[in-house]
TrEMBL record:
Transmembrane segments: 35-56, 77-100, 120-142, 154-183, 235-255
Domain ABC transmembrane type-2: 1-258
Protein name: ABC transporter
Record InterPro entries: ABC2_TM (IPR013525), ABC2_TM_bact-type (IPR047817), ABC_2_transport (IPR000412), Nod_factor_ABC_transporter (IPR051784)
Chief subcellular location: membrane
GO molecular function, a single term: ABC-type transporter activity
Originating species: Methanomassiliicoccus intestinalis (strain Issoire-Mx1)
Membrane topology of the entry: Multi-pass membrane protein
GO cellular component: ATP-binding cassette (ABC) transporter complex
Length: 261
């Protein structure tokens, strides 16, 4: 739902506003690439959240108790849920990628190069893995489908804000900027932006001073700055890897607690 909200708002309202506010060549291509990067990041978490509805439903019906009585280990059970959710997340992300590319080209942009397409697919894999682990930890606290539905609605509504997609991070208060920069999915958006916006930025900012480019990157969340530290893309990759490992472990520990399932 979050991705649909972003697309609808951009096409109906925000696209023209943001494009008109940029006095550079190819501003539409640039902003289309920016918003579609956010859509891909949001899809990775909203799709996995929806897929984990099966886990919550099984829990509410007591099916997981049956699993616990079987020889299946908890980490194996968790791995099965994560694997199925990962597959669904990848499929939905690929659909979003096809839509993004079609929209960008239909609006006057260009297809990603073969190299950049491979980069996007790699980022997509990492993004869906980390989102699956994060969402699994969150839903490990839910015992009813009603609570899960409420959480899904809240996530779908707020995800565009806490990833800096509805409003560019540079336009947010400093405290909120930090919230965005420490949220794992925001790092997925950053990585997608760096790849999708490479070609349009080369055209739009050809000959521009480096400080102008740096300011734009910070304003639009193409790079994150923590105080005086502006890390490279490797930092965001590490954040996503740590997120995947950490929240998978936390979810297993939570499920292993007495009387939790």
């Amino acid at each position: 739902m979050g991705a649909i909200i972003v697309i609808a708002l951009y096409i109906l309202f925000l696209g023209d506003v943001w494009t008109d506010s940029l006095d550079v060549e190819g501003s539409r291509y640039l902003m289309d690439s920016w918003i579609m990067s956010g859509v891909l990041a949001i899809t990775s978490i909203t799709a996995t959240m929806g897929a984990f509805g099966t886990f919550v439903d099984d829990r509410a019906k007591g099916i997981i108790r049956d699993f616990n009585a079987s020889p299946v280990k908890k980490y194996e059970m968790a791995g099965g849920y994560i694997l199925s959710t990962f597959i669904i997340g990848i499929i939905m992300s690929l659909v979003a990628l096809i839509f993004a590319e079609a929209y960008i080209v239909a609006s006057g942009g260009e297809f990603l190069s073969a190299v950049n397409m491979l980069k996007v697919l790699g980022i997509m894999l990492l993004s869906v893995i980390s989102s699956s682990a994060l969402v699994f930890f969150i839903v490990s606290f839910f015992h009813t489908t009603q609570s899960f539905a409420t959480a899904s609605t809240i996530l779908g509504t707020l995800i565009g804000f806490i990833t800096g997609v509805f409003i560019p991070i540079g336009a947010l208060p400093s405290v909120i900027q930090w919230v965005v920069m420490i949220f794992p999915v925001s790092h997925s958006a950053l990585l997608f932006r760096q790849v999708f916006m490479e070609a349009p930025m080369s055209a739009s900012f050809a000959g521009a001073p480096s400080n102008v480019i740096a300011d734009f990157n910070h304003e639009m969340g193409v790079t994150f700055t923590y105080g005086n530290f502006t890390p490279g893309f490797e930092f965001s990759i590490v954040v996503l890897i740590i997120t995947a490992a950490l929240f998978y472990i936390l979810a297993i520990l939570n499920l292993s607690r007495k009387n939790k399932v």
